[in-house]
């Protein structure tokens, strides 16, 4: 009986151990992120596969003479233009994007332009998932990060502020922690003139007090503060670029701006003008005509996306260890919304109907830059300063891509 009891006990213990092991394994598998959650997928010059499971990648080593740049938000409007320029300059590029605002179509364009294996990698992931981000850094030998990924609409930020603090401030912290853990020493941070709020004096210099008046600007300023605090005890090389209102597109017509239809209400004025010119909307809504400006509408500094990307490239080349450099990126000249609309009418050849409404919450009357510092230190000057010409180039892409990066549709 004693021997029998011992055998039974051994069988019971073995069964419990096997069951426990299977349970733990099941829990671990359930916690693995997939593409149907904010996890990870990869495509190196291949089609994006939305049904792939989490891949196991071999550690990629640094390549002598080649800078491997992680571009967060690289499927977006500005990020995709940055990836194009970096690839043209013979850098190696990894795009990380969760496609909540970006376009997989832009990535596919880049993959066709640069089909050589190892030049371009696309990873579907969410910066809000620290575990996935850490895995990406562990499996890739990045030399630098250009951090574009962010929601970026002033009006939307006033309606959903918590989303902006999570997406901008918290996610920047995740990127910094991953960089620190894996020894990535160069960061170019995409910031905004919205951190200045509504300054009393124009033009805006880098020393203008940062007093943001909307959650978008506040979240960006918080991220800047985190970067500076971290850099005090780090040998990281950081450049913060505060840029103004971005317009334009690739002059060769390879890339453009294709915002999601549901975001039209919050999007850039250029997109709104093009929607009106193409008949997607019945007209253009201009919010605010009682500002303290010559014609009553807001004044902004419109910077062409090609100039903006050139500033990022120069920042990447000139970032210095143990320093945080900050630059305004703008033309130094302001244009009113009414002037912008007139330029858009000429660029599109359309008689755009304009409806004037009350002010948009969180907006400010006048903002334009003093780009003296970036000109003196990085030898950067805006080259695409003809507003009408920038709009004409962007309109050319928009007309030939009526459905954005999707399949062509009939003209309206």
TrEMBL record:
Annotated region (Disordered), positions in chain: 38-62
Protein name (database record): Probable UDP-arabinose 4-epimerase 2 isoform X2
Source species of the chain: Rhodamnia argentea
Pfam family, one: GDP_Man_Dehyd
Keywords assigned by UniProt, alphabetized: Isomerase, Membrane, NAD, Transmembrane, Transmembrane helix
SUPFAM superfamilies: NAD(P)-binding Rossmann-fold domains (SSF51735)
Keyword Cell membrane included in the entry's annotation: no
Domain called NAD(P)-binding: residue spans: 70-385
Comp. bias (Polar residues): 38-58
Gene: LOC115752502
Known cofactor(s): NAD(+)
């Amino acid at each position: 009986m004693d021997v029998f009891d011992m055998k039974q006990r051994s069988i019971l213990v073995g069964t419990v151990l096997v069951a426990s092991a299977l349970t733990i394994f099941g829990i671990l598998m359930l916690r693995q992120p997939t593409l149907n959650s904010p996890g990870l997928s990869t495509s190196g010059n291949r089609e994006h596969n939305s049904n792939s499971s989490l891949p196991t990648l071999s550690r990629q080593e640094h390549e002598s003479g080649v800078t491997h740049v992680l571009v967060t938000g690289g499927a977006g409007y500005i990020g995709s233009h940055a990836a194009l320029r970096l690839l043209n300059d013979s850098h190696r590029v990894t795009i990380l994007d969760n496609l909540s605002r970006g376009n997989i179509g832009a990535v596919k364009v880049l993959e066709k332009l640069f089909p050589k294996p190892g030049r371009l990698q696309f990873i579907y992931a969410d910066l809000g998932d620290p575990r996935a981000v850490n895995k990406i850094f562990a499996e890739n030998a990045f030399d630098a990060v250009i951090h574009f990924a962010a929601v970026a609409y002033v009006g939307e930020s006033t309606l959903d502020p918590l989303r902006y603090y999570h997406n901008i401030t918290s996610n920047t912290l995740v990127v910094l922690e991953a960089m620190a853990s894996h020894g990535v020493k160069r960061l170019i941070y995409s910031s905004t003139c919205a951190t200045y709020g509504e300054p009393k004096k124009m033009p805006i210099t880098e020393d203008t007090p940062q007093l943001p008046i909307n959650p978008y600007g506040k979240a960006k300023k918080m991220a800047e503060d985190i970067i500076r605090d971290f850099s005090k005890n780090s040998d990281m090389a950081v450049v913060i670029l505060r840029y103004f209102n971005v317009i334009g597109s690739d002059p060769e017509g390879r890339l453009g701006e294709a915002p999601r239809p549901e975001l039209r209400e919050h999007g850039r004025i250029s997109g709104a003008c093009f929607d009106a010119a193409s008949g997607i909307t019945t007209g253009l809504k201009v919010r605010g005509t009682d500002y303290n400006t010559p014609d009553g509408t807001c004044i902004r500094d419109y910077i062409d996306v090609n100039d903006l990307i050139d500033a990022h490239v120069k920042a990447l080349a000139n970032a210095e260890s143990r320093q945080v450099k900050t630059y305004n990126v703008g033309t130094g000249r302001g244009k009113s919304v009414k002037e912008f609309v007139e330029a858009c009418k000429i660029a599109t050849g359309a008689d755009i109907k304009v409806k004037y409404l009350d002010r948009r919450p969180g907006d400010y009357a006048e903002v334009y830059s003093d780009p003296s510092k970036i000109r003196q230190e990085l030898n950067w000057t805006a080259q695409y300063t003809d507003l009408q010409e920038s709009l004409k180039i962007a309109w050319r892409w928009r007309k030939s891509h009526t459905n954005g990066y999707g399949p062509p549709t009939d003209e309206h």
